[in-house]
Recover the amino acids of this structure.
């Protein structure tokens, strides 16, 4: 399990590079208002918390059970697409409270979902398998399981399909983050949300 700081930095610098770039650029040119900075702070908080959400049981277990077990919340695996629904819905609710616009709130939810999925990607690379499909399938699945094998150990076609699936999964999460950021005001320049 990578440390929490690694999960947050992985999401912010790999999947939200456009937001980091435009925020730095806009601040250097003094084009951001206080409202714009608060909007960016909300995105950083939602992205940071959502990228750490799968590991939230570790906090409880650290204080109560003196261990860092972090993959289960009662009977629900926290490293699953099912649990990512909570990150999405929490961000939508927060977005609706802040923006009073269901479209913007939904895009904030997509941003939170991308942050959550970036956590799953990083853990899958490090640990080699997660229960992505809970409750439909309770066994671990690794998107990256055959990316690091030699050609001689598997069929060439199977290896290429496995690599394609892994890269496709990463690309989908990146596109989700870029799409959400675009709808929330980021391009290569920040445009103020009115």
């Amino acid at each position: 399990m990578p440390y929490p700081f690694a999960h947050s930095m992985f999401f912010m610098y790999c999947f939200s590079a456009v937001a980091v770039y435009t925020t730095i650029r806009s601040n250097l040119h003094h084009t951001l208002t206080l409202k714009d900075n608060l909007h960016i702070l909300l995105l950083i908080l939602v992205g940071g918390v959502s990228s750490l959400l799968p590991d939230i049981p570790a906090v409880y277990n650290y204080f109560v059970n003196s261990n860092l077990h972090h993959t289960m919340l009662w009977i629900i695996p926290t490293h699953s697409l099912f649990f990512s629904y909570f990150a999405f819905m929490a961000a939508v609710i927060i977005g609706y409270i802040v923006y009073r616009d269901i479209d913007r709130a939904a895009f904030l939810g997509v941003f939170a979902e991308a942050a959550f999925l970036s956590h799953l990607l990083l853990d899958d690379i490090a640990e080699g398998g997660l229960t992505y499909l809970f409750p439909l399938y309770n066994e671990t699945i690794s998107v990256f399981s055959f990316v690091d094998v030699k050609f001689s150990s598997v069929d060439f076609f199977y290896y290429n399909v496995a690599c394609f699936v892994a890269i496709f999964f990463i690309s989908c999460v990146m596109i989700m983050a870029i799409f959400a950021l675009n709808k929330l005001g980021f391009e290569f320049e920040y445009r103020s949300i009115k």
Remarks:
- The two ends are 41 Å apart (CA to CA).
- Residues 4-183 form one domain.
